[in-house]
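Q: Okay, next protein. This is F-box domain-containing protein from Pseudocercospora eumusae. I've checked the sequence twice, so it should be correct. Can you predict the 3D structure?
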Amino acid sequence: MASSADFTPVKVRGKRGALSAEKWRAGKRRDPELQTRPAPVSTSTAVSRASSSRPRKRRRDTEPDSPLEALPAEILQEIFDYAANVDLAIVSRQLALKLSKSRHLQIELTSRLLTPVLDSHGNASGRDLAAATRLLNSRFMTWDFFKTWLQGYSANVALSIARADDDSHWQSIWAALNPASELLPPNKLFLRPFTDAKLAFLRTLAQNITDLHGLNAAYAEHAQEGLMQAVTDGNAQFVSVILGMGARTNTELLRVAVADSGCHREIVENLVRHVNVGNASGGAMLDVLDPVLWQWAERAQEQGNYNGEWLVALLQKEQRRRESTRD
């Protein structure tokens, strides 16, 4: 058996028991330039690293078109018109580009999808209503386009409406076509920016709608979000139209109008006096005694803001009205 003398002694670097000379050798640094100089990398290695770290992009132009995409635009437009399927245009970018260039196709498609929900006397199917709303929500369906289509369609059905210089003319034409009361306006009209064109479009389509929550609760949420945005922006006209469609007021909405948005008098008054249609559960009742409102009114009066005194009078009047209706 080997004795300890046969083994080579080993000193572990950094160990406390090491000799001074061993510690010096262990801590001796090499030339700083050698330590900071990056290791040479071959060109092929660098290229492979760059290519592996960068995600590859699919090159659309190298992929063959599908049989449908390869068809000429004229034939695609005929198929699109026959199918009357708005979703066909969003299957691929190729199809969308070919189909979006035809004004004639857009007019024909609009007539095809809106006709079943006009003068339907309550017989429009859910599928027809959904297709019509989907069409109205399309990008090409602007207020100007809708007026152009409305003018041509009303002439084709021999509809005689006295000409007017404002948007009431288009509202009269649309009302005379007797659209289904269940037809919902497009969601895009409830989104910023709230332009005059959107306002006119919404007023025209929403003439017969008074209970959005009763028609479609999920859809009504879009209207509620639009109402909040219109209140925040101080757009009294949009607030009035959306409330007229059956959107609901609540205390939070009134707080935003008063404390966060400058207490626009027309908006605040519309919110306070609006009567919610249908079941207004879930915190939808407006509390005219809410402390936040009264505290804001008191601070406004102290600062010389006449809206403070006006708000107090409005809330008191509404409270008296509610108390009188209970008696």
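A: Here is a summary of the prediction. The longest helix spans residues 306-326. The chain has a mean pLDDT of 82.
Q: Noted. On to the next one.
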